[in-house]
Structure formats: C-alpha cells, structure tokens
Amino acid sequence: MCARRAAGLVLAVLVVLAGAGCGGPASTHHKPGTSHQEATGTAGALLDARDESGHRLREVAAGGAPRVELSARPDSEDGWNLHLTVAHFRFTPESTGGAALPGRGHAHLLVDGRKTARIYGPWHHLPATALATPGRHTLTVRLYADDHTAWAVAGRPVEATATVTKGDGPQDAPHDGPHDGPHDGPGKNGEATHPQPPAADRTVEITVTGSTVEPAPSRIEVERGARIALRVTSDRADTLHVHGYDRTTPLPAGRPATLTFTADRTGLFEVETHGSGLVLTQLVVR
Amino acid sequence: MSWTRRLVLALSVLLAALAGTLAAAPLAQAHEERPVDFPDGSGRVPTLRTGEPDLLVCKSDRADFERRIAAFPAALRTRNLNLFARCLAGGHRHIQQAVDAVDRPGMTIAILPGLYEEEPSLPPPTGACARLKAPRSAFGYQVLSYAQQKQCPHNQNLVAILGKKDLQIEGTGAARTDVVIDAKYQKLNAIRADESDGVYFRNFTAQRTTFNSLYVLAGDGFVIDNVLTRWNDEYGFLTFASDHGLYKNCESYGNGDSGIYPGSASDINNGRGYDVPRYSIEITGCRSHHNMVGYSGTAGDSVWVHDNEFDHNMGGASMDSAFPGHPGLPQNHARFERNDIHDNNEDYYRHVADGTCAKPPVERGYEQGVVCPQISMPPGSGIITAGGNWNLYENNWIYGHKRTAFYLNAVPAFIRGESAWSKQADTSHHNRYAGNHLGVDRAGASRPNRTDVWWDGQGGGNCWQSDTGPSSPRTLPECGARRGDVSGGSDRLAGEPVKLVQLLVCADYNVQERRLPAGCDWYGARGLARVETQIALGTALVLGLVGATLWRRRLRASRLAAVSTALGAVGLTLDVAGSTLPLTAGYVPALALLLLGAWWTALGLALRPARPALAWTTLALGALTLLDAFDKAVLMIPWIPLSPAWLRGLLAAVWVLWAAIAAAGTGGAAPAGPPRGVGPGPGAAMGAEPGAAAGDGPGAGSGAEAGAGAGRVSAADGTAGGPPAAGRPTGDGPSGGTPGSTPGDTSGATS
C-alpha cells in the first residue's frame, strides 16, 4: 500500500523491505529489539517468622534454593578474610531495596548472633576489633533477598557458620587456624549448613628451627579425600604453602599455626615455607 | 518536477534508501500502540501542590517503615510518622487502590516510603480480560484500545492511571529511592498515565519492566519531577503524543533504548523557522546514563532540552525520523542547550553477541549493567540526528567521545512509511550546531572527541561552528552569528555514496537473531573488516591494476605518464589509508583525491595524442576528482544536487572498462605516437555509458562492447556533449582491439 505511488521497481522493493507503517496503529517504539517476555511466578512465600532484626523469612522450595558456605581465613595483618561460597544465588547490591527476585540478594554477617555487616560479594574482611572479647566467636552469614527478607528453606534461614578465636595479645594473633569451609558439603536440598570444622583424619606436627625441620622431611602417604591438618611451629614468621593445592597460611613466630584441608586430588605435593624456602614434607595422595 | 530532477531524486532516494539509517528490515514489528493523535494543546504544565494529600498509600509493617525513615531529618520523619498513622487508619496498601479512589480532578496521592510491588495487579488476565478482541503485536501482547485499557487496566500495566485529570502522585521519602515501584519484569509498563492531562509525578523510583517504567500517553500537561527509572527493555520515561510536558531533576539508567524518550512530542512548530512561540516539552536537570542512548526523540518535535547530563551511554542523545507510526514526522525543532554530553562510549552490543540478550529480560542482568541495545546506532557518539530539521544544538559541552560529537544523516521518507516523491529528501535541513564546547569539560580540561562531526553530506541549511575539530567531510558549512546564517552551505539530495553504503551495511542489525553486521565499525569492525576500507581497497586494486597496465603497455615511453602513474599509486594507497578510522576525519582522504586527480589529469594529457577520446574521459575524471577533493577539503560546492563523488564514481566505472580495453588491446604500445585519433566519441562515453557501466561489473564482453561500441552508441544516440576535441575523424588507434566492430567510421558524425 505504501509503495502504491512509488515509481520504480527497486524503490518499491525497498519500501516493502522497510516494512513501512502506513496507517495502522501508532508505534511508540523502534524496532522489535529483544524479546519482551514478561516474567511470571513468585519468589517464594513470606513467613510470619522474622529474624532477630525483624526481617521476615521468605520460604522457597528446597530444590534450587540459595545455599551458602563460609570459610574464615586469618589475614596476615589483621583479623580474618571471610569467603562466602554461594550456589543458586548471586549478589545484587545494585538492586537492594527492590523486590525479591529468586536467587538474588545479599548476605548479613552476624557475630555471635548479632548483625554486624551487610555483605555484597563473596569476600569480606572482618577486623579483629570486630570481636569484642578474646576467645571463640561464631560467625554466621545468612542470605537475604533484595527486599531484606531472609531466604529460608523449611522455615530455617539459609545460612552458614564458622568459628574463629581471637587471641588476647595486643594484635590479634592466635586463632584456631583457617577453616576452608564445610567439606561435608552443603546441607541436603539446600538446607542451611552449619559447618563445624570437621576433625582432621590426620594431623602432622612439624617444627621449624632455623633451617632445621623436625621431624626430618619425608613422605607422608594419605588416602584421597582425607582431611589433613598441618600444624607447624616456626621460630620465625613465615608462610606455609602446600603446592598443588595452593594453600597457604601465615606462620607467626614461635606459635603453632594449623592449615587444614581435604586432600581431594591425587599426586605428590610439596609442603614448604615460603620465606625460608624449606621443604617440610611431601604429601603423597593416593 | 523536471524529469532530470526526478531522475536525480530517484537515484538519490534509492541510494539514501540503501542507507536504511537506523531502520532495518523488521520495522513492521515495532512496538505498537493504539492510533493516537496529538492533544489539542489547550492544556498547561501542571504546578506542584504542596498541601496535604488527599489519599495515602503505605505498607502496614510498622517495623519496616520505621527502619526506612530512621535516618530522615527530624521534621520529615515526624511528618512521615503522622502520615503513616493516618494511612494505617484510612489509607491504601497499593497505589492502584488509591488511583482508583480518585474521584475528581486535582487530587493528590502521597506514597509513603516502602517497596510497592502492587501484588493485586500482577496476576495474568483472566476471564473477559484474557479474551479481549484486539490485534496482537509481534511479541504477542495486544494493541488495546483506550476502552480496553479501561476495562482491563492490568493486562499490561502495574499501575494504570486512565483519564484522571490533574492528579499528583508523590513519594514522601527523603530521596526518590525511598519509594520503589517494582514491576519485576512482569508487566510492560510500571505506571501508565493515559489521557490523564495535568498529571504530576514526584519523588519516587519505578523499575524493571519489559517496556517502560513511566509511560505518559496522549497527555496535555504532565510533570516528571525527581523521579528515577531504571532497568527496562526499552525506556525509562516514555511520554508519547503529549504536550505541555516538563521533565526535571530526573534520572534514568539501564534501558535498552533510551532513558528519556519524548517520542512524538506535540508537533506545534511544524512549518516555522528557528523562532518558535513555545516548546511542547521541556527537559531539564535530568541525568540519563548507561543506556543505549540517554535521550531518544523519534519525532521528538519541539522539545527543549537544557542543562541535563547524558553520559556513559552508547550515544548521548539521538533524534530521528527513521521509524514509522510516530505522529509528527519528520522530526523537527528540538533545541539542546547547556547540556553536558560526554563519554558516551559504552559498547553494549557485546551482550547481544554473547547471547545474554537472548534470555528473558528477568535473566539478562540489567541490574548488573547489562543493556540490550534495541536498534542499530553508532556507539561513541554525542548527539545523533538521523533525519531531523530545524534542530538547534547550542552551547552544550560535548567531550570524550570515541567516535564523534555530532552525527548527522538524512532519512528518506519511505523509511517512515511515506511514499510521496516530494518528501523523500525532506530531512536533514537547517540543523544548527553552534557555540558548543567541543572536546572540553565544564572545568575547561581537554577531553577531545575523536572527531567532532560525521555528516553524510545530505540536506540544506545545516551548519557547524567554526572551531569544529576533525570532521568527515573535512570541510563543513559554517554557522554565522545569527540563526539561519550559513556560509559555504550546500543542498544535496543524497549523501556521500560510501557513507550510504556504510549506513546500509550497519543497518542490518537484528538483536533477536544476534546479527551484528560484520563490515560495520559500530559493532567493532576495524581495519580491513570495515566496509569503507574494503571498498577503498577493492577500488584501489582495480584502478591500480588498470592504471599500471595502461602505463606499461601503452605509455611507457611517456615520462609524464610514468610520473602520474606513480602519483596515482600513492593516491590509491592514501585513499585506502584515509578510509580507516584514525584518518578518515583528517585531510588524508582529500589528499588522496588530489593525487588521484593529478594522476588522471596527467594521464589524460599523456593519452591525448594516441587516444583522444579516452584521454578526454580521463581528463574529465581527473577534473571531477580534483573537484571532489576541493569539495571535501576546502568548500562544499553549493547548488549541485549530488556531490562530485557520485559522478566521479560513475565515470570511474566507465574509465576502468575503457582503460582496461585500451590497455589490453593487441595493437602493441603506441607511445606518444602521432595523433591518430580514435573512433569513439568521448561525448558518447560520458553521456551514454554511465547507465550501462554503473550496473555491470567489469567483464570482458561488456567491456569490449562498451569501449569499442561507444562510437556506435553515440552515433545512434546522437549525444554530442563531448569535450571539444571529440571525434577527430581518423581511424582507430590500435586496430583489431575491438572484435566485431569497425569503429571510427561513424563516430565522426557525432560532432
């Protein structure tokens, strides 16, 4: 119709190609662009239950529900570096305050059950001063939706915990070593996990004095999947490093530090000190 | 219209059509709305009422509410607590309930701090609303009449304001983010104000729709004041077919088209010059960022856009006449003043390339910065005008763009669905770019744009300020002190041919099919991948081959020819270099033309003794090329309907065939031989050949015929427009070079 008056075949063809909106409805938009498929469904159901701050819980089905794991790694200078490993969840700081959309939001950090921070990503630094008193403290991370309701499965909030120990020295020092999170896996069906540091299957005690390693470096054979705790005391500050697994932990001078991990890969791995460059032992994982 | 003018017009329309500009094939599927007309313009811009609200909306969770207002200033906190108490007693829990309770003009709804999801509006339509008889758009949603919108307000809208007059809706928080209306990508529009004259929106946020967050349709009088919209498939703010509008202190980001879209603003100044009595919509104090474009104005007529910031989009602002169905086309009379338009260099096409934009909107990650560009456009641009007239761009700060500050091209009328001949070249006139601060920020720091202007060359009365930096073309019509003053102006019916080809290639974008045209630098093509460079290179290879062969086989003895051929080689090399992005806006392209023109001129002189017809054609080509260089680098030649590049291109096609034949002939070199003349009258070549040559590629058969048969054609045609030396009545130079013809015997008759 639009081409009715267009003289010239090529022009007519082009007009047809161009689609042309002769007559007909108005068009407020441009080309079709993307699909504009409207979303459906809900983001769970609000429960009457609330968290300690008064935020309501938002119940979702266990399948596909958000999950979180927590590990607390001592920082070489101050406090701990908390690492949140999430599944079926992404951090959406940009839209905080908006409506709850499935699998999105942020986390709250609670120290001994009291909210101390909102966490917008997988890493968070917890300074030693955040812990009021020396001794053991329980850290909890809990997942919240953008609208500040707490994601929950079976009436329980989705959360994970870890414990850290604050020393009584002037600078935060002793701690019971880093946890690398729950290795017994997340709670089934996305249930909240409450990881306690699982006992090590094998603890290896090593002492470093100057360039002397006691016991003398040798090979330690372990089964794949075993949890290994390396408890190392060095007479000077150094860094412990497990090759292959690429795990490190600082060694404070004169005090034992423990590196616990699951030997989940087979092979021969050297354990060494970074500063003095000593090989402490070799792990043979079969 | 004389037939010649019509021919030129047809040609130019055809090629402008190639441009397609911002429009591409699937236009027919554009988002549709019921037919609407402009309001009659009898309304007025509403003013803010500061008295007590008539209706209140709040959520009932006191703990939540108190958390939200805890940090407010004391007075505001007290006011909110009082309003909350009132609201709990007699207010509404959802905005729609309050809107439905409006029973007279001039009421005010206050929304207390909170998150509004409008749950009762969310469910998909059922019953009669699921069975409305209405045409469907390409996406499946229905194009509803106003009556049907009334009948089923939530088929497409979270909050529907239909036919309410002078309604004011305001948030009572300390900031616009204290009241959030969230459509969660479950509705086309978060708020629709349809035929609701005098509506005043203030102090809230609306977000996450599959079209628009705040949509004003067919309204005479509206204000959008301190409102934030974000994360929409298309627009943050869309005000369509409306008049007496004011946007102020607004913000929008994360939209697949534009943050601010005064589409089809009332066309109240059509037919006027620069002086207008008023503007239909005023936009001021807004910031629009991280969208495809900050501002879009398809048929954005008579919009006054001043003191805004458009930054970190793919393009700062665009206005166009490239889409059908918008009342008020072609676009005209936008006025941009004192805007801060900078760093619009985002590249969101990557989200199309990697498939992110193929997901449903809710999963694309708009909140994390994904934008899905709905159409094709040149990223890195400050202000794009694709088919607009009488637009004023004055005193803006435009800096930090990786492509260009001002992008101007014409759009033929059929692209917008109008087929009348008289309209095909009716865009891209009288756009004035003057007094802008180009390449410097407000503090005066240097933040250059890579180029300041890209213009296809079409249209009349356009002008740019004299301190414009690198531009393509290198020389531009210059604005005088007063609006309307232009020196060096031109008035062409079509743009530069290579630019039109580029626009055509670039327009072949389809987000749903993930089609990103490979030859177009808008989508990241660089170097040899760019169609402009490919054209230049292909042309250079053909011309170089023909030129070298011609010299080797026919003119080796001529020093003039040797020097000129060397010049030609340099010129061709520069032409390829000048087609690349870094050099295209400088003097290199014109320098290349200068050298090529010199080549052809000298070559023509060298050829004259042996082959006068070819010689004169070559000279003509040389002259046109020099003219083209002049046109591009010194002064755009006025009065001509097409740039010299068009004729030059056509003649070059003829020349290539002719020269190839001359070079390929078996007659052996006849360097600087006695003037034996040739048969074909040059007038024939110039007058009759372009038609054939333009369409055909170089082919031995047609080439031979074209060259050798020229004499016959011209004789038959009676064309006698050749240069003076035409038709020296002597035999053909290299005999036997043209099988099946006996040129020379008839050509003498042509002159």
Indicate the low-confidence ranges of chain B by residue numbers: 18-30, 668-751
Mean pLDDT of chain B: 87
What is the first-to-last residue Cα distance of chain B?
31 Å
> Could you describe the largest sheet of chain A, including whether it forms a barrel?
5 strands, mixed
Query: What is the count of structural domains of chain A?
Result: 2
Q: What's the number of extended β-strand segments of chain A?
A: 22
Brief summary:
Chain A has 286 residues and is mainly beta. Chain A is 3% helix and 44% strand.
Description:
The complex is a heterodimer of chains A (286) and B (751). Chain A has 286 residues and is mainly beta. Chain A folds into 2 domains: 45-190; 202-285, Sandwich (Immunoglobulin-like). Helix content of chain A is 3%, strand content 44%. Chain A contains 1 helix and 22 strands. In chain A, the strands form 5 sheets. In chain A, strands 6, 7, 8, 10 and 13 form a 5-stranded mixed sheet that branches. Chain A is elongated. In chain A, 43% of the residues are buried. The model of chain A is unreliable at 1-23 and 170-196 (pLDDT under 50). With 751 residues, chain B is of the alpha/beta class. Chain B folds into 3 domains: 1-30 and 283-516, no CATH class; 34-249, no CATH class; 527-750, no CATH class. Chain B is 28% helix and 21% strand. Chain B has 15 helices and 38 strands. Chain B has a 20-stranded parallel sheet that branches. In chain B, α12 packs across α14 (700-708). Mean pLDDT of chain B is 87; it is low at 18-30 and 668-751. At the A-B interface, α1 and β1 of A face α1, β1, α2 and β12 of B.
